[in-house]
Amino acid sequence: MGPMRIRVLLDGRQPRRWHVDLLERLARRPHVQVHVDARFAPSRAVADSLFHIETLLHGLPRTGLSSLAPMSALEPFVRDSLATADLTLDLRGDDRRASGRTLWVTYDGVAGEGALIAAIISGRTPVMEVVGVEGVVAAGRLGAERAGIARAMFEDMLARSTTLIVAALDGAAGSKLPSLPAVDVPVGATMALSTSDLPRIAVAMAARKAVRQMYRLGFRTPHWRVGWRKTDGGDLFDLRRHPDAGWTDLADDGRRFYADPFPILHGAQVTLFVEEFEHRSAKGVISAVEMGPEGPIGVPRRVLEQPGHLSYPFVFEREGSFWMIPESCSAGVIDLYRATAFPGGWVREATLVSGVVASDATLLRREGLWWLFATVRDEGGSFSDALHLWSAPDFRGPWTPHPRNPVLIDIASARPAGRFVERDGVLYRPVQDCRHGYGAALGIARVDRLDPRNYAQTVETLLTAGPKWSGRRLHTLNSAGGFEFIDGSAWAPRWKAWGRQG
Fold first, then answer.
1. Contact at 8 Å (CB) between 431 and 443?
2. Class of 4-196 per CATH?
3. What is the pLDDT of residues 289-332, one digit of tens each?
4. Residue (of 11, 140, 209, 82) closest to 410 by Cα position
5. pLDDT-based confidence at 188, cuts 50/70/90?
6. Quick check: 345 pLDDT over 80?
7. Staple partner for 122: which of 27, 183, 188, 295, CB 3.0–4.6 Å?
8. Would you say 372 and 363 are in contact if contact means Cβ atoms under 8 Å apart?
9. 150-170 vs 17-27: helix axis angle to the nearest 10?
10. Which residues, 6+ apart, have CB-to-CB distance to 143 below 8 Å?
11. What is the pLDDT of residue 71?
12. Angle between helix 45-58 and 150-170 (nearest 10)
């Protein structure tokens, strides 16, 4: 049997770097031969002008997935006999009558990169679909790390577009996205970009940058805070809203913040583990504080530090010991630690998964099998929109990737936000809704299917900041021993921290 021949129809006057990267990634697949059709669609000079303005204004690198590539970069993929291709991947959408097996890529139902740019400029979270003659093959809600900068968002979403295209060819990512309940967040209307818009957009971008710079002069950013309460009247999985009594803040000194709360019950004592982030060092460590009947006893004390950043201290008890899987995505590994002198004395026991940039690894034991959930940054793009699963007979491994990874591409519900909870035989997972920025809202998702063949979930509830939890973010949810914890953004005036120094 000969190689699979894939013909790719490109979108654009000149290839972008992402086109070349996509072709190279497809060509690296076993027994695949890639051909490119170098006929190009109309000019996109207006978008490139906008990207140029942003590059100058924000000091962005001049090279990236959106940058133009020389035509010579396509030469390895320009071949004869394209009519004999086994599969056509149409990034233009200009030939819906194509013969043979054809896949089209659309953004919010419209083919071509112009539709993706329009969604970004309009402030929408675009839904990308890979569509075949018989319907949707794979779908995803694309995310970005730097909201408000069109070029940076465009490049993040191009990276995840490649992920979804490859997943579609592998039969991985699902064709249906979780439905989302209504939530009071801003949604932009469709906008077309023209040359006359550029001066107005440039002025608006400069104004936003000036406001952000002024804010940073007076406030530390980002600055998160942890909230706690007693669960006498039910937890958030019962209430599906903020409690009437609100939350009590875990106090900080303004020079550091606490985030990612993970409590655990040790005998009759609740110990809370958090990420502690000191602004001066700009690095996260893991700290712990005991909870008394009326709240924290003292302040969190450092219990685990590594050369790189640590956060999301997923702590659990098993076989008479306490274990932790902190996020260490900067090191490209998911590591397991064991406590030798709880709540401290943490030693590395094993590397569960290596060679991945994984965020917020979360463990679950279900029907005799261990599952590991995390979002993975796949050769660029957002840290929060591609959910990967692994399974193992023991929490120490060996861990096997799910055959449909990424099982979900969804900036609104992929990233974990705390431990799983089971109610009346139904399994729920807290998730982060990052459509309008990292940790912008907290979702409660019902797990509909979890097995070695597939994964599916339904988002039943979305919680945002408001009168009962001020700020602009809501991020993590966990409970233990009659206490419940969340975290979110906080105002951190620099002058208050100065006043505490001395």
1. yes
2. alpha beta
3. 999 999 999 999 999 999 999 999 999 999 999 999 999 988 89
4. 140
5. very low
6. yes
7. 188
8. yes
9. 20
10. 125, 156, 157, 160, 381, 382, 384, 385, 411, 434, 435
11. 86
12. 120
Say if residues 374 and 406 touch (Cβ distance below 8 Å).
Answer: no
Per-residue b or e along 51-79, where b marks 16 or more CB atoms closer than 10 Å to that residue's CB: bebbbeeeebeeebbbbebeeebbeebee
* Signed CA dihedral, 301, 304, 308, 312: sign only: negative
Q: Global pTM?
A: 0.92
The encoded tokens of residue 135 equal 């319907």
What is the b/e burial string over 442-451, where b = at least 16 CB atoms within 10 angstroms of the residue's CB?
bbbbbbeebe
Tell me how many helices (H) and strands (E) the chain has.
Answer: 7, 28
Q: Which residues of 86-99 are buried (b: 16+ CB within 10 A; e: fewer)?
A: ebbbbbbbeeeebe
Please give the backbone phi and psi of residue 483, each rounded to the nearest 5 degrees, phi first: -115, 145
Phi/psi of residue 140, each to 5°? -160, 145
Q: What angle do CA 450, 451, 455 make, to 5 degrees?
A: 45
Q: For 309-409, where are the E strands, in sequence order? A: 311-318, 321-327, 333-341, 344-354, 358-366, 369-376, 386-392, 400-401, 408-409
Confidence (pLDDT) at 148:
83
Q: H-helix or E-strand containing 454? A: strand 454-463
CB 415 within 8 A of CB 434: yes
Domain ranges of the chain: 4-196, 223-231+243-409+479-500
C-alpha 154/C-alpha 382 separation (Å) is 11
438-479 residue pLDDT tens: 889 999 999 999 999 999 999 999 999 888 888 888 989 999
